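Lay summary. Proteins are chains of building blocks that fold into shapes, and those shapes determine what they do. In this project we predict the shape from the chain. Here is one chain we studied, written as its sequence of building blocks.
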Amino acid sequence: MSSYFILEPACNTIETGSAYPQVQKMAPGYDYYALNSVHALSRSGKKFPDFVPNLDHFVVNGKAKLTDLLSVATLHGGFLISEKLKSVLENFKLPPHKFYDAKVFYKKQFHSYYWMHIICDLTDLVDYSNSVFFIYVNYAHNLGHVPVASKIEYLQKKDKVKKDNPDKAVTIWAEKIKMTPEFDTKFDLFEIGAFDSNYYISLSLKEAIEGEKISGCSIRPAKNIF
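And here is the predicted shape, written in a compact code that computers can read:
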């Protein structure tokens, strides 16, 4: 049984309010096409950008509430977090990351936050032959399992599935992930990447988040990783 948990922003709770994501847009007049915009930061993918992103400012929806972890529609590849949550995370072993200063606007007031940009790819540490993969269409439909023996075979089969279905949003996704003995179990926060979009945390980080009463977090057992 895995001792890890999946961390994500909470949705439609008393704590977060009814709007999801809590942040659905940037400030009026924000230039999404600028070279240092949130869209440019999202496009940087698995590398840190060569610019300081303009994170001035995120607007919290009127039906949402301000929490330590905020759900965001305008940016991906990390977390929008408060100083309180940042202080908790800094006490744990984290993958390569950077904290960028961000401003959040809520109920006519500005609040200091951080965008935690995470770079983590552990696909080389997956035991492919003992994991379970399937063909995923539109990130909604499972078209059946497909055997995968290695990372190279995964990339080959993923490429073939895409070529065979040029008119569909299709990929190969992981249902169960078995990690190799080389996997660094000392990571308290990580993502695997490529065929899995979850962020995982250790039991000790889960307990710290709950102990410090960090708001806006959804934490559930990771039943898909071993």
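What the prediction tells us: The chain has two domains: 9-119, 127-176.
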